[in-house]
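ok so I'm stuck.
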Amino acid sequence: MRTGVVLAVLPKASGVRQLVVISGASGSGKSTALRSLEDLGFYCMDNVPAILIESVLSLCDGNDEVEDVAIGVDARSGPFLENVASVLDGLGDRWPLRIIWLDAQDKVLAKRYQMTGRSHPLGDDLFNAVAVERDLLDDVRSRATDRLDTSGMSPHDLKGAVQSLVATENERNYTVRIKSFGFRHGIPSDVDHVFDVRFLPNPYWDEKLRPYSGCHPKIQRFMEEQPEVERYLGFITTFLRRVLRLSRKAGKQNLSVGIGCTGGQHRSVYISEHLHSSLVGDGHSTHISHRDKSEE
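replied:
not stuck anymore, here's the structure
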């Protein structure tokens, strides 16, 4: 996965093009996002300097055979990123502009680079390189209309999330994203509502249950035996159903929910899974991810 900004021009709707920018930290899923746009039929180009973006889009805009376009601009462009703010603002004057920022926790980015055996494009000191990279792309990040924390996402999850955001109005279904997490590792930056479940009985204190996650039958049985859990699940489900009705009535197309416990292993995972099942049963398109859950 490489550093970059992806510009996507969606198919014409009522004669109007929609412009989408996808940017983020190297390793957060830019290449996966770009491929997900290719799967939707976009014509893709990568590593285009910011100063050339508008010219490229003008050429595509005048080509009847090209309607869906994705353009990647890497942070490695260096000095060509200095005017990216004015470029984006200018594009926003010509097209309805959506900017999606992808990011992940530093430890997750490090693990992904370790798994691939690749070095960061901005230097061998990974954590310093990521900090420099975020600074270079800050003008893009500060203009983001949507933020996705990909720390707990699989490539499949990220593909679905990006496609649901950039789909045209007729193609897009209302999507609910549910993410479990541990407050110990920080609150996700890409959620609309956060529910704190740290007050619920904690299976962590039973050494026999500690190694398992909230997806394991032993943890599920433990949680099912706690009356507080059932009551709180009822509260969250009722609240979200009401929010979803109001949100759709207001014309919104997605809702993101974070469920947090202390470490992100047991209670938040269990509650997220049950909430996911309830909303799927209601007919909602729902994506679930567990940011901090360990492999069993």
